[in-house]
Amino acid sequence: MERLGRSLAALIPPQSLTVGLSGGPDSTLALLVALAAARQDPRFLVRAVHCIHGLDRSDDHWLRHCQSLCARLGVPLTTPRLRIVPGRGESPEERSRLERYQALHDASGGGALVLGHHRGDQAEGLLLALSRGSGPRGLGGMGSITTDARGILLRPLLGLGKREIEDLLEALGFTYLFDESNAGGGFARNFWRQQALPLLRQRYPGIERCLARSASLCAMEHDLAWRVVGPCLGRAQEGGALLISRLPRGDRTLALAVLRAFLEQGSGVIPSLALCEQALSCCEGPPDQAVRLSLGGLLVRRFRDRLCLVRPLQPPPRGGFPLRQGESLCLGDYRYALEVGEEGDPAAFCCPQGEVWLDFAYLGSEIIRPRLRAHRRSVKKLYVELGIAPWERPALPLVRDGEGGEVLALGDRAGVRGAGGEWRRLVIGESTYF
Q1: Is 420 left (phi over 0), alpha (psi -120 to 50) or beta?
Q2: Domain total for the chain?
Q3: pTM of the model
Q4: Contact between residue 428 and residue 434 where contact means Cβ atoms under 8 Å apart
């Protein structure tokens, strides 16, 4: 235990350690290891989180066990109740996993999250990844420390097998609960756990160590590849989009890797090889080619030289709507507001009164002259000149001085009126993230 505690403490500087505690053997030992790290350096502050899923009648039994364990150890325990509503085509188990991770990261409060994954989990994960046709990124498995946008995630038990964990807990005098769902054969992971791996262990007693070593080698190969792909991706990105002209020319393998990294980074989902090849074919096609590929709830779209990941949003209804200074207006999945503008801002306009009219029923043939341009243009031509993608256009209103009045601006892209009133600009955002 002291060795495991030292290994955990060596991974990160002293900070809070939040342990995801189910009450099973793995998470129980993870909690004890975190406490061992705190004994060696009191600057590590240990707490536990037990998520209540609400999917099983035994939830109360697990909760009471975790409460008793934490009371015995003197560890603060948080017990968030999850709200699990599967989306279309999503299983309750997958939604439960996503909600659980979100709750655990939220509870960590910027500190490190500690989980009890062990060598057997690593082996199962590698076999699952193989069955799904994953590449080195997926086959690389889990690391002892993972840092991403959500924070730091620690797995101090990856070097231990399941039996070693149970023996250690027995020697220390701690009990644990057994999750009966792990014994079922309904889930893909349980097939590998209950049927395939026991057979492999009979034939190859050291199979878990070998699989863990293979995962480690795959992770190392992925890390080496990223040292080439990462800089290429950095050069190809601009404003959240991938500039197709900056993809490596003449090296389809590298271009495919850069594209895959861009899609994974933007969606949080590892895209399939087939989807990446489709996206690359679209990049190699005509610049006006329509692209609409789905990935992790987002759409992969192309406009000219840009490949974008777009959240599918409900556009505002056709028609007109008043918008007053100091207020906001929700239309479809968008929210609109007026803010103070500056003369040097191309999107700013002079507002003769404290209210404007948002017109979503205009025609693309309507002629306007942006105040910083010398010539009049149809709105349709301005879309092209200003680089406004087709999927962005339905959310852009003509800003008018009252219903049917003078055009003040084209959405948040181009101001038209430049005299008579105070400087304003329209702000457009997604209603959820405004």
Answers
A1: left
A2: 3
A3: 0.69
A4: no
